[in-house]
């Protein structure tokens, strides 16, 4: 358990905007040293401005990184450690909000969505975990998934939600392995509902190799439709609020960060259907 993050080097992927920047800001406010990487230079420039405005520019570094680039991931971590000290907190936040009808998905849609949302997280673990283990000071891993990954199925989410569900399962297994080895390294998975981010700009970031004629690229509803019933609670959260939730999870070594409890009925409905399928009379024996 990391009761304090002060002085701890934190590496945040997709950290130039949205949830990644919210987590970085929350960590920096408590004295962490923060390395941010992002695919977009304009987002990195935005992060630099925020660091300067909030007074943590002297504890900040920014790198351009595509998380599917394994050598680039290792090189960014090398440079971050050289400038800010040994890695203590790894935040695998980078992702793409790919949305479209899964029955019409192309190989390119699958390769891009899975490559960033799942393999990008795995690349972070392979590159980062040995560094945290090596210094023996302990640390924490945060993987960002989605609350939609535990809710009932919705239209347009047939690639996005499965990748995020895999990140949840990955984190659960990672935490178990770390605990079994007695390592002082915690693990949390952040499952955001609607947050005010740039996720609607996802298709602007699709690499040329994956730009094909696909309804995932021509959909009319950015990132699919959202549930209408908010239960009176705040719907679109500020990314900094998610950052504060994540900071609490790091300090207390909480496994799950669920941002929108008002969607619990959808989660219950999905789980109830699974439990019903396990009843003795569900299938002929």
Could you say which overall geometry the principal axes of the C-alpha atoms support? globular
What kind of sheet is the major sheet? 7 strands, parallel
Q: Please tally the helical runs, counting DSSP H or I stretches of 4 or more residues.
A: 8
Q: Beta fraction of the residues?
A: 5-15%
Question: How many runs of DSSP E, i.e. beta strands?
Answer: 7
Terminal Cα separation, in Å?
A: 47 Å
- CATH H level, superfamily name: NAD(P)-binding Rossmann-like Domain
Radius of gyration: 19 Å
Protein name: NAD(P)-dependent dehydrogenase (Short-subunit alcohol dehydrogenase family)
Family: Belongs to the short-chain dehydrogenases/reductases (SDR) family.
Keywords: Oxidoreductase
Pfam families: adh_short (PF00106)
Describe the model.
The chain is built from eight helices and seven strands, in the order E-H-E-H-E-H-E-H-E-H-E-H-H-E-H. It has a single domain, classed as NAD(P)-binding Rossmann-like Domain (Rossmann fold, 3-Layer(aba) Sandwich), CATH 3.40.50.720. The longest helix has 29 residues, at 107-135. The model is unreliable at 220-232 (pLDDT under 50). The chain starts with 8 loop residues before the first strand and ends in a 9-residue tail after the last helix. A seven-stranded parallel sheet has the order 3-2-1-4-5-6-7, with helices on both faces. 43% of the residues lie in helices and 13% in strands. Helix 3 runs parallel beside helix 4. Helix 4 links the parallel strand 4 (87-92) and strand 5 (139-144). With 285 residues, the chain is of the alpha/beta class.
């Amino acid at each position: 358990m990391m009761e304090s993050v002060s002085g701890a080097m934190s590496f945040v992927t997709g950290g130039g905007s949205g949830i990644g920047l919210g987590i970085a800001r929350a960590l920096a406010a408590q004295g962490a040293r923060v390395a941010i990487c992002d695919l977009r230079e304009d987002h990195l420039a935005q992060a630099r401005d925020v660091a300067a405005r909030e007074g943590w520019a002297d504890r900040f570094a920014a790198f351009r990184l595509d998380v599917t680039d394994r050598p680039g991931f290792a090189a960014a971590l090398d440079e971050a450690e050289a400038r800010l000290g040994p890695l203590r907190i790894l935040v695998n936040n980078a992702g793409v909000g790919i949305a479209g009808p899964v029955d019409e998905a192309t190989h390119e849609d699958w390769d891009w969505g899975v490559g960033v949302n799942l393999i990008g997280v795995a690349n972070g673990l392979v590159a980062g975990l040995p560094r945290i283990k090596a210094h023996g000071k302990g640390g924490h891993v945060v993987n960002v998934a989605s609350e939609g990954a535990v809710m009932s199925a919705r239209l347009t989410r047939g690639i996005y939600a499965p990748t995020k569900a895999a990140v949840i399962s990955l984190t659960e297994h990672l935490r178990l392995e770390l605990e079994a080895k007695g390592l002082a390294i915690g693990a949390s998975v952040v499952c955001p509902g609607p947050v005010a981010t740039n996720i609607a700009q996802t298709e602007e970031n699709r690499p040329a190799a994956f730009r094909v004629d696909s309804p995932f690229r021509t959909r009319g509803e950015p990132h699919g439709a959202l549930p209408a019933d908010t239960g009176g609670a705040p719907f679109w959260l500020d990314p900094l609020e998610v950052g504060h939730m994540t900071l609490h999870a790091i300090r207390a070594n909480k496994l799950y960060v669920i941002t929108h409890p008002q969607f619990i009925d959808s989660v219950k409905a999905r789980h109830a259907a699974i439990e019903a399928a396990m009843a003795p009379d569900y299938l002929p024996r």
